[in-house]
Amino acid sequence: MLDSPLSNYFRLTQKQIVILNKIGLKTVRDLLWHFPRYYEGFAGRKAIADLIPDERASIHARVIKTEAKKTFRKRINIAKVLVSDGTGALEITWFNQPYMAAILKPNQDYTFTGTIKRSKEGKFSMMNPVFEQGEVDFNSRTGESGMLVCVYPETRGLTSRWLRFAIKRIFEKISDSDLIEIIPEEILKKYKLPSLKTSLHEIHFPRDLKRAEAARKRFSFEEIFLIQLIRQGYRKKRDEHPSFLIKIEKEKNDDLIETLPFELTGAQKKALGRIFEDFNPTGGLKPMSRLLEGDVGSGKTIVAALASYAAVLNGFQVAYMAPTEVLARQHFEEFMRLFGKQNIKMGLATSSEFLKYPSKAFAGKPTHIARAPLLKWLANGEIEILIGTHALIQEKIKFKNLALVIVDEQHRFGINQRLKLTQKNSEKVPHLLSMTATPIPRTLALTIYGDLDLTLLDEMPPGRKKVITEIIDPERREHAYEHVRKEINSGRQAYVICPRIEESGNGTSALALSMKNVKTEHKKLSMEIFPEFSVGMLHGKMLPKEKEKIMKEFREGKINILVATSVIEVGVNVPNATVILIEGAERFGLAQLHQLRGRVIRSTHQPYCFLFTESVTQKTKTRMIALTEAKNGFELAEFDLELRGPGELTGDKQWGISDVGMEALKNIKMVEAAREEARNIIENDLLEKYPEIIKRINSQSQSLHFE
Ligand code: ADP
Ligand code: MG
User: Which domains, from first to last, does the chain contain?
Assistant: First the structure.
């Protein structure tokens, strides 16, 4: 029954089907696993005339008038709705949800539940209430007691009320044999987790909050446990394959290090040591599966380069994959500089061009080549290091003896892309070095990187100064510009980041108009604010050639100010840039802001980051303050996780983890327990004992894309 479509049980309109599909509710299972975001405590039903300040209450009333506007002084977006129930009228206000004015329809009845406030002038109002269309029968809603009301994640056109009705209906039809427990009983007992049947019931019809939470915990555990099983199973399979023995030629390695303009940091040396051990281990030769996690600017590229060098010295090939063309090109150039004297043959492959270095025609420069010769030179081993974007994964690209795969900014790739690249050899599995600067909480790392060994680059190159990060009020904008002017006059460069490329086509709303965009800002900055400087522009809609030209001019200092979207967010390295201005900062995630800020910590000059926001909610403020205060990316990541409430973790869809799963990540003990239990099963080959788990893993690992 769980896998049958919802339309078998409900008469659904075409519109309903579309909406249900949109949020992923197709089968009975989807519906039952669509958990409440939170529970509303029962609030007494009142007439508007009887309301008392500071008390929670429910009213059933008709909408008279709706209006979206900005508050007079703080310019906060609000929706104001006037309602009446015959005994009186009441004003309802939503802060930062101006669209509520469009969702609620005049002359329709709703039930609103929230706290009553009294203004200084004595006027009553309700703030940010929850609501449902029509009259709610509180007695029929939750099992026996009717005390807790489930509030589900909603979309336009799909209400909690309908979901409650639908789930109840399903529970009337379902039998115990439909609900097959997948967590082994010993594990349930050991961690005092409720059974599947109990949990499903308590999460949708809780008798009390404690039981609802226990149920949630069970589902959190289950999700993490399954991910761990998949990841560790994958690692085990990988480990069964032989890999390449890469001997370390210490002298040649040291000679290359000698040519660097800097000393390696202790952390870089340690990381290299780990990698070299994996290349040439004392025990059996398993393929390396290592994640190098280092804050932005900690110097991951050189570690990757030295690892590549070791592989090439052994006569093997290396593939280095980066998420953007700009970055691939940058790495290619860094490698040309670094390996200029070593006579290493390199190629660049992106979706728009192929390059080969060194070229016969021009000394010290790469040549453009066609695709066919590139493929030939990869297959016969003539090209030793291939750098590129995901163009590298194409079937056609075959190597002679690919022994090392490097994935830069690996969180930008799906696990499948990572796997594809490491499967390019038939018998032996190449070593994998994954790199990321996205500092993520330890619990998340343990979960989604369950198949990787973690190495931290927890030390910055010497002399790096902490970025002075400031939130700039609108009236101080000029000061920030003055500061940029000063920096440029003393020889530095600046980035200005905007959330969008151009004015949105249908941008008639105040919100869309106020959102800063690259094209308009570029015009304004180059003509009005900084006419004396050269101002360039970079965004994702430009042709690769144009992008490369702009990056080159910026790198060479011909452009003083680069106005860009977040395309520069990952990896771009122009050490002379020391100021970054971020417009509409609240539109970027904390991790993303941290990455952006990382663009200016690539030298020993004092770097600055100025944040402009378009809205000033308390949440925005807290997040911005976190950014100014966090010591490093890891601290910021932990903070980010803490800051998010229920329902707000959805932003992490990229990790392939649900809201409930994300909740587990706030609990290191639970994550470690799930990991431990999964390891026990995988290492001792016990999985066969649990056919239900295998079934779930198989269906899940197809649909899930981690990272
Ligand atoms: P990320 O870890 O963000 O990828 P990069 O590898 O791009 O960082 O390095 C950032 C900058 O720091 C580069 O200009 C690089 O040449 C420089 N760098 C790397 N290692 C060191 C070091 N040990 N000492 C000084 N500068 C370094
Ligand atoms: Mg990098």
Answer: 43-135 (2.40.50.140), 250-284+299-436 (3.40.50.300), 468-631 (3.40.50.300)
Q: Which ligand places an atom closest to the C-alpha of 335?
A: 1
- 3-state helix, strand, coil split of the chain in percent (to 5) is 45, 20, 40
If you average pLDDT over residues 153-169, what whole number do you get? 82
pLDDT tens digits, residue range 194-226? 999 999 999 998 877 788 899 999 999 999 999
Whole-angstrom distance, CA of residue 471 vs CA of residue 414: 34
Q: 591 and 640 in contact (C-beta within 8 Å)?
A: yes
CA angle 636, 638, 643 (to 5 degrees): 90
Cβ 575 under 6 angstroms from ligand 1: yes
Which of 602, 603, 632 to mutate for ligand 1's pocket (most ligand atoms within 8 Å of CB)? 602
Alpha helices in 56-184 (DSSP H): 100-103, 160-173
What's the gap in Å between 645 CA and the centre of ligand 1?
Answer: 36
User: What stretch of H or E contains 497?
Assistant: strand 493-497
Q: How far is the CA of 322 from the centre of ligand 2 (A)?
A: 9
Return d(Cα 627, Cα 640) in angstroms, integer.
Answer: 10
297 ligand 1 Cβ < 6 A: yes
d(CA 152, CA 288): 44
Distance (Å) from CA 605 to ligand 1 centroid: 14
Residue corresponding to tokens 């998340």? 444
pLDDT tens, residue by residue, 345-367 = 999 999 888 999 987 766 778 88
Residue 323 CB–ligand 1 contact under 6 Å: no
50 by Cβ neighbours in 10 Å (0-12 / 13-18 / 19+) ranks as exposed
Confidence of residue 143 (pLDDT cuts 50, 70, 90): very low
Query: Which amino acid belongs to residue 166?
Result: A
Measured CA to CA, the distance from residue 448 to residue 228 in angstroms comes to 8
Query: CB of 32 within 8 A of CB of 178?
Result: no
Q: Is residue 302 within 6 Å of ligand 1 at its C-beta? A: yes
Residue 507: exposed, middle, or buried by beta-carbon count in 10 A (0-12, 13-18, 19+)? middle
Q: Would you say the CB of residue 127 lies under 6 angstroms from ligand 1?
A: no
CA dihedral 192, 193, 199, 205 (to 10 degrees): 40
Please state the atom number of ligand 1 nearest to the C-alpha of residue 598.
3
Element (H, E) at 18: helix 14-22
Closest CA to ligand 1's atom 19: 299
Alpha-helix residue ranges (DSSP H) falling in 134-261: 160-173, 185-190, 196-204, 209-239, 250-258
Q: Which atom of ligand 1 lies closest to the CA of 265?
A: 23
DSSP designation for 689: G
Q: Which of 302, 306, 458, 578 has most ligand 1 atoms within 8 Å of its beta carbon, as the pocket-test mutant? A: 302
Least confident of 54-58, 328-332, 346-350, 500-504: 54-58
* Ligand 1 centroid – CA 302 distance (Å): 7
* Other Cβ atoms within 10 Å of 405 Cβ, number: 27
Q: Give the contacts of 338 (CB within 8 A, at least 6 positions apart).
A: 256, 259, 260, 302, 305
Describe the crossing of helices 668-683 and 209-239 by its angle, rounded to 10 degrees. 40
